[in-house]
Design goal:
The complex is a heterodimer of chains A (about 200) and B (about 325). Chain A is mainly α and about 200 residues long. Helices cover about 70% and strands about 0% of the residues of chain A. Chain A has 10 helices and no strands. Chain B has about 325 residues and is of the alpha+beta class. Chain B folds into 3 domains: about 80 residues, no CATH class; about 130 residues, Jelly Rolls; about 70 residues, Phage tail protein beta-alpha-beta fold (3-Layer(bab) Sandwich), CATH 3.55.50. Chain B has 8 helices and 16 strands. In chain B, strands 1, 2, 3, 4, 5, 6, 7, 8, 9, 10 and 11 form an 11-stranded mixed sheet that branches. Chain B has a 3-stranded mixed sheet with strand order 13-16-15. Chain B is globular, with a radius of gyration of 24 Å. The chains are: A mainly alpha (about 200), B alpha+beta (about 325). Chains A and B meet through helix 1, helix 3, helix 7, helix 8 and helix 9 of A and helix 1, helix 3, helix 4, helix 8 and strand 15 of B.
Chain lengths: ~200, ~325
């Protein structure tokens, strides 16, 4: 079908009218549909991209493309959309490197068959959220874990934590940011690169 | 301290994660003000990945609240004291937050950004001006001893009042451009940096340690992974390239494919020329930088081509 730009669907040049509401809708969608799929996406990327240090940046590039598409219109099948975006990006990169993207394609077909179906696994994962969080917390370095537990589980103020542990509020901030980052990785991507902090 | 002066050409996930965590930590400290919020909004608007990273971390952090369900509830007296202390701590945090908390905080610089199709002019206190083209992000630190600008992405035209006591430096990834009193334009693409000088002199350092190459009026330098190449540009070429400052894109025997690419820079919907024969058609003339329909109309009426919308972009064919 041929669509001419200046008839029914003029090209949008400016901002959408209700940007804040649109953004909130995309945010909720992204957290609900895209982030829980991160584990699968990361496994796909790890299988198909040999340079490990580039995988997180690849994932981010995929997220940006998915996000930008979602701002125009929320994709109907979010997981398929993520995987197709991932495949296209990989093929693009592989082409630039002059590598035949055979494996990426084969793997995609296998993956595609299972997408966007409410599988028993997914439901189990949702139920297991608390357990995953608990495991993630247990894997944090000792001091970081203490700070996070006091703040988030026991609900202590930062001043109280500072007195109890005898550390400055700046040190608390360092533990909070470290803990936040590690928990985020373990929760969504199930990877861990934790180092102990003095 | 200038934590971002020598970031790699594209900020990596790790750095963005660190900044996002810094923001969430700052919120968690309490005493969050409207000013903090608008500073955060600026950062979120610089690049979509900032916003996504922030959402992702915020979502994980919000879920840790459920961990409370695993523990026995605390005595209410304890909660009460906690609340009281939290209020006192918030005041302290608000006062010392900016000064001491450096490693993960965003730079003190002020960020300015334009979306696709957007343009913006920023005036510095001394009358120097920086004009941002489409899809551009910069940060400016304007202090008594230095004027530092980071071009995070896109293209900027700079008209600088020279002041040896407050030198102007533009950082583009590892590279830096020092002004020696001048008008120049800097364009940061994914794989290269282009600097063109309209007036005066600028120095271009291609790495933090290498000495600067001096560029003069009419010089254009392209720095990429392959190295540095220098060319000369006529006044007319330079003026054409800066058409965006007047809201237009100027083509001068430009192949249609390259012209479509230029128009795409200003439009949310991308344009692509599918046929190799159409791609080479030379285009001369001026089109609007704010309305890509003008270009598509030109392709239809002048060359008799068709534009079809496919997969969210316009594909131009015979």
């Amino acid at each position: 079908m041929v669509e001419t730009p200046d008839m029914d669907h003029p090209i949008e040049v400016g901002q959408p009218k209700n940007r804040v509401a649109a953004m909130e809708e995309v945010r909720a969608w992204f957290i609900r549909e895209v982030l829980p799929f991160e584990l699968t996406l990361m496994q796909y990327l790890r299988r198909n991209w040999r340079r490990r240090d580039e995988i997180v940046d690849l994932r981010n590039d995929i997220y940006v493309q998915v996000y930008e598409a979602a701002l125009q219109k929320l994709p109907d099948k979010p997981q398929q959309f993520v995987v197709i975006t991932a495949r296209n990006l990989l093929i693009d990169r592989l082409r630039r490197e002059r590598i035949v993207p055979m494996e990426a394609m084969a793997d995609l077909d296998a993956l595609e068959a299972t997408l966007d179906a409410p599988s028993p696994e997914r439901i189990a994962i949702a139920r297991d959220e608390l357990r995953i969080l608990q495991n993630a917390l247990d894997r944090l370095p000792k001091r970081t874990r203490e700070v996070i537990v006091m703040r988030r589980v026991e609900g202590l103020s930062r001043a109280e934590i500072s007195v109890r542990l005898g550390i400055s509020e700046e040190t608390i901030s360092a533990h909070v940011t470290d803990g936040m980052r590690a928990l985020t990785e373990m929760f969504f991507g199930a990877t861990s690169n934790l180092r102990d902090k003095p | 301290m200038r934590p971002f002066a020598s970031t790699p050409s594209k900020p990596r996930a790790d750095e963005i994660d660190a900044i996002a965590a810094g923001w969430l930590d700052r919120r968690d400290r309490g005493g969050w003000t409207e000013g903090d919020q608008s500073e955060l909004d600026v950062w979120l608007n610089v690049d979509p990945i900032h916003r996504i990273t922030y959402w992702r971390m915020e979502a994980a952090w919000a879920r840790t609240e459920r961990l409370g369900a695993l523990r026995a509830p605390k005595a209410s007296a304890h909660r009460h004291i906690g609340f009281f202390h939290a209020a006192a701590a918030a005041v302290v945090a608000a006062v010392i937050g900016g000064a001491l908390w450096m490693p993960t905080s965003p730079p003190a610089a002020v960020a300015y950004a334009t979306g696709i199709g957007g343009q913006k002019t920023v005036m510095l206190s001394d009358g120097s001006r920086i004009e941002l083209n489409t899809d551009t992000a910069i940060r400016i630190s304007d202090t008594a001893t230095a004027r530092d600008v980071w071009l995070d992405k896109g293209e900027a035209y700079l008209q600088v009042t020279h002041n040896a006591a407050r030198p102007m430096t533009v950082y583009v990834g590892e590279r830096r451009i020092t002004d020696l009193g001048t008008k120049f334009v800097v364009n940061r693409a994914a794989d290269r940096l282009e600097v063109s000088v309209l007036e005066g002199l600028v120095g271009l350092g291609t790495s933090p340690t290498s000495p600067a190459v001096v560029l003069r009026e009419g010089d254009a330098a392209i720095a990429s992974a392959q190295g540095l190449s220098l060319t000369r540009k006529s006044r007319r070429e330079l003026s054409n390239e800066l058409g965006w400052r007047r809201g237009v894109i100027v083509f001068d025997n430009t192949p249609l494919a390259a012209a479509a690419e230029q128009v795409s820079r200003y439009s949310a919907v991308k344009l692509e020329v599918a046929d190799a024969s159409a791609a080479r058609l030379p285009v001369t003339g001026t089109v609007s930088a704010t309305d890509p329909n003008e270009f598509l109309r030109m392709a239809r009426t002048v060359f008799g081509l068709r534009a079809e919308k496919m997969n969210g972009k316009f594909v131009i064919t015979h």
